[in-house]
Amino acid sequence: MINFENISKFYNGDPALDSINLSVSAGEFISIVGQSGAGKTTLIKLILAEEKPTSGSVFFDSVDIHSLKNNAITKMRRRMGVIFQDFRLLPRKTVYENIAFAMETAGKTDEEIETDVPYILDLVDIKSKALLFPHQLSGGEKQRLAIARAIINQPEVIIADEPTGNLDPINTNEVIQILKKINDLGTTVILTTHNPRIIDSLKKRVVSMEKGKIISDNEKGKYKI
């Protein structure tokens, strides 16, 4: 589904990514681990076409992402849902409205919104918070709302960039369980983290990075950090 072929990315002459070759299959749950500065976020930015590689190619369903025009990039991004560490919620909209807005921008009808929003809120266990604003939510509830917004338009891929970085262990576990549930429903999940407890609990494929290089790629959840 997603393929990195001989990818390097330099900033001011310094390598953020160095000769990366990586494939992610449809329906896979893959964790990308490494300390700050390892290259995880740069990898994500290349998938989303927020950055261009210095050399090499990134393919999404055999299409070179960085050869696409702006309109085609927008369409491609609609096939992906992104979850960030800092939530990026709309502060002046309620929980319900945050998700409804994501559907509106994707061209969904009022009927679809009325049907799908309650279902997704129930899936992430914040249905009772529908009329609250983000500032009234706990950190874990904010992240569950961010997940709901990311999956509401049924993307093929979920990219979760350090989604538990600001959460306590209980909320971290709840968020990871939701991501596993999403993956069980057939969605590809790409998770970046530097938390070894998460990796231990998942027992899924782990790609370890260090200084812009892949230092291990293990199907059984073993890793190097």
TrEMBL record:
Membrane topology: Peripheral membrane protein
Pfam families, alphabetized: ABC_tran
Every ABC transporter domain range: 2-225
Keyword Nucleotide-binding included in the entry's annotation: yes
UniProt GO cellular component terms: plasma membrane
Family of this protein: Belongs to the ABC transporter superfamily.
Its biological purpose: Part of the ABC transporter FtsEX involved in cellular division.
Listed name of the protein: Cell division ATP-binding protein FtsE
Organism: Candidatus Nomurabacteria bacterium RIFCSPLOWO2_01_FULL_33_24
Taxon lineage: Bacteria, Candidatus Nomuraibacteriota
